[in-house]
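Wait, can you check?
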Amino acid sequence: MIGEQDVLPKWYPDYRKSDTLMRIQFILDHQTDFSLHLREELNRTDMKNLWAIKKRLRLRKHLDDLHKVMQKLIRYSIRIEQSREIWRK
């Protein structure tokens, strides 16, 4: 059976046994490491998000182009129908 101490890293203090000053000291000691880790994680996440946004924008551009082409085709087919009606008369 695994205890809590086995799961937590060795440098992680046991908060139940420590006082407030020890907690503050721990946070201050590991703040820079943690902020660097967070910054790296944010960079990775931002790059993934940027890639996804670029992909969506690219898809949206293709959809807009497709929409324009469809509108032109619809206008063209309407003109053909109108010209056919004129020629029938």
Remarks:
- The chain has a mean pLDDT of 73.
- Residues 4-88 form one domain.
- The first helix runs from residue 4 to 7.
- DSSP finds two helices and no strands in the chain.
